[in-house]
Every structure is written in structure tokens, then in C-alpha cells.
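INFO  loader      accepted 1 record
INFO  loader      residues=406
INFO  predictor   begin
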Amino acid sequence: MLCQFTFKNFRSYRDETILDMQAASIDEFGNSLLCNDGDSKKFLPVSAIYGPNGGGKSNVLGALVCLISLVMHPIVLLEKNKHPFDSMRYLDYKPFLFDEESAASSTDFKVFFRVDGYEYKYILRVKSGEVLEEFLYRKTIGGKRTATIFERSNGNILLGSMLSRGGYNTDVNVKMPYLSFLAINYDIPAIASAVKWFECSTLINYANPNSELYLTLVNIEQYKKVLISMFHKMDIHIDDYRINPIDKDNNRYEIFVQKNINNHIYELNFTDESDGTKKLLGLLPRIILSLQEGGLLVIDELDAKLHPKLLRFILQLYKIRTINKNNAQIIFTSHDLTTMKNDIYRRDEIWFAAKNDFEASELYSLYDLRDENNNHIRANASFDKQYLEGKYGADPYLAQMLSWEV
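INFO  predictor   done
INFO  writer      dumping C-alpha cells
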């Protein structure tokens, strides 16, 4: 479970930026919040990021994906991952380029996450393909004492008490995170637990929506009935599917969807389905896996090609505790205002990304905003209407567009 993600000097984000999944002390949808046994802290199952084109929405997700890929890339490359890992594109980091100091500085990441009864804190500073600093700490959920697992700085690695007597090699390539190095070369429970969170985090890349689809369908074969049931609840007539191998050595497969019409089975090639159905067939297996594993699902433009009712259905899967039993989370960008409603989101689940006068992106939640009387935006406000009116800062430019003259 993701608690908080902080990054700095990544693409359009110059300053330190925080995506906080800790729930604010507000009343709405309290029964949808995530929690761990023995701890009073509550966390968000959903975060939706809105804003104008070019405002930096995708770069928030990009920063998170970049951190995950920095850790997982060497592990997957050497096939040392211990859990099924839904392949994601490797996203390189680039600093903010519109001032000389930032362009010459490091890109910094910090993430707090919970897994296997512990809360971990992981920090990574990188520059020009090299790791400058790296730290890993953990504490028992609900506990106060934080244990050092390792600290890496100025070319030196200091091992905490749980590793110091293990004789572990600290001579690691400057281009590789030490967390990845330990996961590849040793069987250390604390390291395996930390890496498990990264492994169970997934980005769906809709630049290539069919990529790795067959692998996901194979991985959830035991959940096929659940997948078909979800299609039926969405009023999508798919009764089964089958995977036809074309060239296993090169991972080439065909997918056929099956429809039962008047007791006769008809088949369509996956490529002949509508764009929305194709997206759902690629999306729903990942949703099922994230709910099963309690993983993090990161999706750019989740709403694209989806009917608003389907988007609402997907969000409810994460917000209903009897369905989301393992603290799964979904973070996505969206332009769909038909779901920006107070009967769907808490105020701290809606985020806005927009650029300031220095061309640097800023990220803030709806709950962070204040009205003209310095009060929080009301829980029963018309979020979509106020957003279109430009009251939330991430102005979609509607007012200016309506005043244009041809």
C-alpha cells in the first residue's frame, strides 16, 4: 500500500512535489478508506489527477513509474523477480530544464509504503545514470522505532544491524540501486518484502494497449469466471475467450473473444472488437490482479474510450471494502468531468496539476484549496462546475475559449 510519494526535479516538476495517499480528517466516504490491523492511520484507495493538457498530470505518474522501473529493471532483466511482474516501459528521468541550477542537479525520489506488516521508507537520488544516494528504513506498522536497513552516500554503503553481520557485498555498480543488487544476489526477507511492493505495482501503457495482454490473461486464468462476470455486469457481451499461440518463442499470440448467441458460440478476433472493449479486456485483468495482490495500479488517461458508467464501476471496485480486501490502490489521470462528483470522490482523492509562470508544474489536492473566506471547498460543492469555472486553479481554459472571436 502506497502511503506517500515525493519527488523533485523530474521533467516539468522543479520543486519538491508530494502525492499523499494518507486520508485527511474529513467525514466523506470513511468506510472506503484503507487501513492495517493495529494502526489507526487511514489511506486512500483512489487518487485522480486532473488538469489542462501539458500541465504535468502524466509526469506525476511518470515519476512514480520511473522510480519503480529504476528498482525493477535490473531485477526483471536477470529474471530474479519472485512475483509475477506486469512488464512496464522503462521511463528515464530528466531534470527540469528551464533553469540552469535544476538542469545540473539530481532527481530525487522518496516513497513510504506498507507491505507484510511493515512500513518502509525508501529514498533514491540519481543523476546522469548514476545513484548518488540511497536509503532504506522500516518500522513495524503501529510501532515507533525505525530500523536502518542500509544507507548509501558518497560512494559508501553502511549496513544496518539486520544486515551488518551477513557478510553482504557492498561493492555495487554506481548505476544500480543497492536495493536491486541485494534482491538479485541474496535471499533477505526484509529486502524481498520491500521489492514485493515494487513488483506488485503496475503501469498500463496505452501507447501500446495490446502489449503483454496475453501474459496477463494467462496469469489470471484461475480468475476467468470473475473476469467474464465483470463483463456481464458492464453489459458487455463476452462469454469466454481463448488464446491461440502463433509463435511462442517470440511471444506472438492471437486472442479470440467468444459470444454465446441463441446457444451458438461465435468468435471474434480481439482486434475486431471496439476500442472500448479492447481497452477493458486489457484493463480488467490488471484490476483483478491488483485487487488480489493488494497492489498499486497506475494508469494514464483511464477514462479514454470508457463510458463514464464503466469508469464509475471501476472506481467502486477499489472503494468497496468487501471487494477491495487487500488494500489495493489505483492512481490515474483523467479529463472526464462527468465523474468529478462529490458522490464519487472525497475531496482529498481529487488532485490538480498545472504549470506556474515559470513553466514548472505544481500538484495540489482539492482538499488543499480554500475559498474566498479561507475555508476548505465544501464537501457538497459541484466539483465539476467549479473546475470548469476555473475556481481550482488548474483552469481548463473554457472561459477563454468561449470568448474567442473568429
